[in-house]
Amino acid sequence: xxxxxxxxxxxxxxxxxxxxxxxxxxxxxxxxxxxxxxxxxxxxxxxxxxxxxxxxxxxxxxxxxxxxxxxxxxxxxxxxxxxxxxxxxxxxxxxxxxxxxxxxxxxxxxxxxxxxxxxxxxxxxxxxxxxxxxxxxxxxxxxxxxxxxxxxxxxxxxxxxxxxxxxx
Length: 168
Fold this sequence. Notes:
This protein has about 170 residues and is of the alpha+beta class. Helix content is about 20%, strand content about 45%. It contains three helices and six strands; from the N terminus they run H-H-E-E-H-E-E-E-E. A hairpin with a 2-residue loop joins strand 5 and strand 6 (about 145-155).
């Protein structure tokens, strides 16, 4: 990528601040506020990773751990806010770390890649960790952004988690 295509320092800082704010909302179970960051047409998905030779493709299948839209994400969040989210009894304590943020400006949206580390601690499960990269499409929304698309590419081929009730 040539230097001319890099976003301004100010734009990069705003994107990083947005992603850090999102992480804080998720870490503090402020799910209703997190939903407000999503575009009504959100595509939120996590494809399955497979082990392949580098010459055989990117290592991801068309099958997915989940493929959500705003309605299904809202249902997931509303369930987490009740006592009937059995997968979250006792509740998890997640911690989201975001780094290596790359921002590419398009005509009407930003294409953003970021590395993530998501830890989850739970009394009965102990400690779990997920790492990978997220590919986001961010749309301008006033002084902030909305997430229009998120593709989560985990590094692990085998997820040892008993569930995927945390949000990435």
